[in-house]
């Protein structure tokens, strides 16, 4: 897994206490670990996940440590739902300072064993959602001249992996998306 961060001014992320951090796929795995670590840094953690039980699990773990997080049930493959819930987050929590595009799915099947629907789902969750979340939160970051976008990738985004044609391709796309976005932000 590779994590690339964009700091618009080229600077490092220093004190993040009080900042709003939104983590997609925050219900489990890397997303849950990110939520725990950012909570310990005294940020205002917002987690999005498609799994209600996973959201509750992360929230319960954080609460047991004395932290609070905002949870939203979101299907990030649904563009309109992303925009709708993003608006709700801005109203209820505030503008997002750090967006972590973390959610991902993997089918672990060879090309000939993948269904068309599985391929479409992998693309919708693993890369298209990055467009929707970034477009939802980047304007406020640009207006305030601060913010960070983090793309959680995979080594599968740097080299092809057997049984992962859909996953590897989307993770290659994540690297390309992030690098291209970086150049666009440096120019604007």
TrEMBL record:
Pfam families: adh_short
Gene3D superfamilies listed in its UniProt record: NAD(P)-binding Rossmann-like Domain
InterPro entries hit by this protein: NAD(P)-bd_dom_sf (IPR036291), SDR_fam (IPR002347)
Main location: membrane
Key word Calcium present: no
SUPFAM superfamilies per record: NAD(P)-binding Rossmann-fold domains
Domain of life per record: Eukaryota
GO MF term list: all-trans-retinol dehydrogenase (NADP+) activity
Topology of this chain in the membrane: Multi-pass membrane protein
Keyword annotations: Lipid metabolism, Membrane, NADP, Oxidoreductase, Transmembrane, Transmembrane helix
UniProt-annotated location(s): Membrane
Presence of keyword Membrane: yes
Annotated Gene Ontology cellular component terms: lipid droplet; membrane
Function: Catalyzes the reduction of all-trans-retinal to all-trans-retinol in the presence of NADPH.
Similarity remark: Belongs to the short-chain dehydrogenases/reductases (SDR) family.
Protein name from the UniProt record: Short-chain dehydrogenase/reductase 3
Gene name of this polypeptide: 5566918
């Amino acid at each position: 897994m590779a994590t690339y961060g964009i700091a618009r001014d080229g600077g490092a992320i220093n004190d993040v206490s009080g900042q709003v951090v939104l983590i997609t796929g925050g219900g489990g795995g890397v997303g849950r670990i990110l939520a725990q670590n950012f909570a310990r840094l005294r940020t205002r953690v917002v987690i999005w996940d498609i799994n209600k039980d996973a959201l509750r699990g992360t929230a319960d773990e954080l609460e047991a440590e004395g932290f609070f997080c905002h949870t939203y049930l979101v299907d990030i493959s649904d563009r309109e739902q992303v925009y709708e819930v993003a608006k709700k987050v801005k109203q209820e929590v505030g503008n997002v300072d750090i967006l972590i595009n973390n959610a991902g799915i993997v089918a672990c099947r060879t090309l000939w064993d993948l269904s068309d629907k599985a391929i479409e789902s992998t693309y919708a969750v693993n890369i298209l959602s990055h467009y929707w979340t970034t477009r939802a939160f980047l304007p406020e970051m640009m207006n305030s001249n601060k913010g960070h976008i983090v793309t959680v990738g995979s080594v599968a985004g740097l080299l092809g992996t057997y049984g992962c044609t859909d996953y590897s391709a989307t993770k290659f796309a994540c690297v390309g998306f992030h690098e291209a976005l970086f150049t666009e932000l440096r120019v604007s």
